[in-house]
Design a protein that fits this description.
The chain is an alpha/beta fold. The protein has nine helices and eleven strands. It has two domains: 70 residues, N-terminal domain of TfIIb; 188 residues, Rossmann fold (3-Layer(aba) Sandwich), CATH 3.40.50.150.
């Protein structure tokens, strides 16, 4: 028991473990996540419907979205952006790890007669011969990736973009990092049964890495038949550190915003968005 508690409270190296599948591909948690996606009144998994509508309006205006514009939505979830963009005549491809979300998105597309290509795949492994005018990665997905994964992702974006094509993504700021605190807590059925339909004991350890500007929420889930550990990593950025990663992969940063609805950039925002163009 003492050794188990030691393991639970051990701080790993930044991005030492990658367990995205335990969140997005698990039958139970993917159902919980889809429910969060589809709740239009909360900012969990997806933004509120009001914000998404405003964001799509800005995206369509800023990037001149319409017939002939090819868009790739990385981490598309149940198609909340993809559906709206396809309704504006864009040619949309959505990529997501969650089979449940992709199935829901495809059902909506079929029901509405929209020709959207959905790919159920870890977007780190996505390959295509298609070339796009615009790539989206929204809801701070970029922050969940390690430095190596982010470089791989940006290189992929560069390859599959048309010359002059753009990337729009959002990230957490250093102000948000400052507001995070290290914690350790234990609770029966942690997060109200989010992790399993059966009884379990959940431990949450939050670790901050000051030098790297990374936060880890480490969930240890003790069930009758198994013990699981899920690592939720988040990288926090300054405009300078984010721009550096884009420039190293051949992009030029065109502009910064407070969010993906085009609000003017504010240094006190907990998130910010970037538009970067392929040179």
């Amino acid at each position: 028991m003492f050794e188990e508690l030691e393991n639970i409270n051990t701080r790993p190296e930044p991005f030492e473990f990658y367990t995205a599948g335990d969140l997005w591909a698990d039958e139970h948690t993917s159902e919980q996540m889809l429910g969060f996606h589809l709740n239009e009144d909360i900012d969990v998994s997806s933004r509120k419907a009001e914000f998404i509508n405003r964001s799509v309006e800005w995206i369509c205006f800023h990037f001149n979205v319409g017939a002939g514009i090819k868009i790739a939505d990385f981490g598309c979830g149940p198609g909340l952006y993809a559906t709206r963009l396809a309704q504006r005549q864009a040619d949309v491809t959505g990529i997501d790890f969650s089979n449940r979300s992709i199935q829901y998105a495809q059902e909506i597309a079929t029901k509405e007669g929209l020709s959207i290509q959905y790919v159920n795949q870890n977007y780190l492994e996505f390959e295509t011969d298609d070339r796009f005018h615009l790539i989206l990665m929204i809801m701070c997905d970029f922050c969940a990736l390690s430095p190596i994964q982010r470089k791989q992702m940006l290189s992929k974006f560069y390859t599959i973009l048309e010359p002059g094509g753009s990337v729009l993504l959002d990230v957490y700021s250093l102000l948000a990092f400052e507001q995070r605190e290290e914690t350790a807590m234990y609770e029966t059925n942690l997060l109200s049964g989010f992790w399993s339909p059966d009884k379990y004991y959940g431990f949450l350890n939050t670790f901050k890495y000051e030098k790297e500007k990374v936060v880890l929420d480490k969930y240890t889930l003790i069930e009758k038949a198994q013990i699981r550990t899920v690592y939720n990593w988040l990288q926090y950025f300054s405009p300078e550190t984010l721009e550096k990663e884009f420039v190293e992969c051949g992009f030029v940063v065109e502009n910064l915003y407070s969010n993906v609805a085009g609000s003017p950039f504010a240094s006190k925002s907990e998130e910010f968005a970037v538009v970067a163009k392929k040179l």
